[in-house]
Specification:
Order of helices and strands: EHEHEEHEEHEEHEHEHHHEHH
CATH class: Alpha Beta
Number of strands: 11
Radius of gyration: 19 Å
Largest sheet: 7 strands, parallel
CATH superfamily: NAD(P)-binding Rossmann-like Domain
Number of domains: 1
Strand content: 15-25%
Length: 303
């Protein structure tokens, strides 16, 4: 069986590709640069070059595929959200979704499932409200983007099973948000951003990959699933756990106004706001978390 992954060279995509290969799947990774894709993913993954906006060059691989996993999306937190950057963030997601729709429409033998990436930004900033998959979308740019991101492949539901993964903040080695959070601690400058009372909904990379595979292989599951750990904690508590693991103090907060000056709207929506998200549907389906608590997750990652 083969699985097609869009966004395979990203943080989650790399780990998912490796996991699938180890389990005997053939992985077809779409990349805008075939040479770079091979350097990142190795020889065990079939690299197919594409233009990031159409089905040209890879539609033939959809025939008989077990699954398509669409993880494509420009990084949301790498800088200020200018109008040009906002447009690029949204278009990268919509173009990939359109390409998936086209490829499935052309395929004579449809895949069994499409896994569509999304994020907990869907819910917007909701203070202490507990958010599960039945909660409506929130307000703001992130919510607007994720709603359209999810809808980008909605039309395939008439032909194949579709699963939406609303992913939290992914913690793991070799990238992700944790690599940025640990840097200040090395200089004894660790501390939460702003008030520290915003909710921090996270998931270990191993659980992210394992949950994707769980949802991919369970043919009775469809619709939206929150991919976050069951533990609920505020970011100040997360920083305390992280500081303890690194044997560093975590008492020096970063003032919110400084972050707003540096990053503007992006800081407000991704750093100074949070969501209290629970993986209700994933737990009800019987998924068992490998790392349900942040202390265990950080200890594994930092070794």
């Amino acid at each position: 069986m083969h699985v097609i992954i869009l966004g395979a060279t990203g943080f989650i995509g790399r780990a998912l590709s490796q996991s699938l290969v180890e389990e005997g799947y053939e992985v077809v990774a779409l990349s805008r640069n075939q040479i770079r894709g091979r350097e990142i993913l190795g020889d065990q993954v079939k690299i197919v070059e594409w233009d990031s906006k159409s089905a040209e060059g890879w539609a033939s691989h959809v025939n008989g595929a077990y699954a398509i996993v669409n993880l494509v999306g420009e990084n949301l937190s790498s800088g200020r959200w200018t109008q040009e950057r906002k447009k690029s963030i949204l278009e990268s997601r919509l173009k990939a979704g359109k390409a998936v729709n086209m490829a499935i429409q052309l395929a004579q033998s449809k895949p069994k499932v499409v896994i569509q990436a999304s994020a907990i930004g869907y819910y917007g900033s909701r203070s202490d409200e507990i958010l599960d998959e039945s909660s409506p979308p929130g307000e703001g740019f992130l919510s607007e983007v994720t709603v359209k991101w999810e809808d980008s492949t909605k039309e395939v539901e008439s032909q194949v099973r579709r699963v939406i993964i609303r992913t939290g903040l992914v913690l793991g080695r070799g990238g992700g948000i944790l690599s940025r959070l640990v840097r200040p601690f090395r200089f004894f400058l660790g501390g939460p951003p702003g008030s520290g009372k915003q909710w921090f909904s996270w998931i270990h990379l191993d659980d992210e990959v394992s949950a994707i595979r769980f949802l991919m292989e369970r043919e009775d599951l469809q619709g939206a699933f929150n991919l976050t750990a069951p533990e609920q904690l505020m970011i100040k508590d997360f920083y305390h756990i992280l500081g303890k693991a690194m044997r560093r103090p975590s008492w020096l907060p970063i003032p919110g106004f400084v972050l707003r000056l540096l990053y503007g709207e992006m800081a407000q929506e991704t750093i100074l706001s949070g969501q209290r998200v629970v993986p209700k549907r994933l737990l009800e389906a019987g998924y068992k978390f490998i790392y349900p608590q942040a202390g265990e997750a950080i200890k594994e990652i930092l070794g």
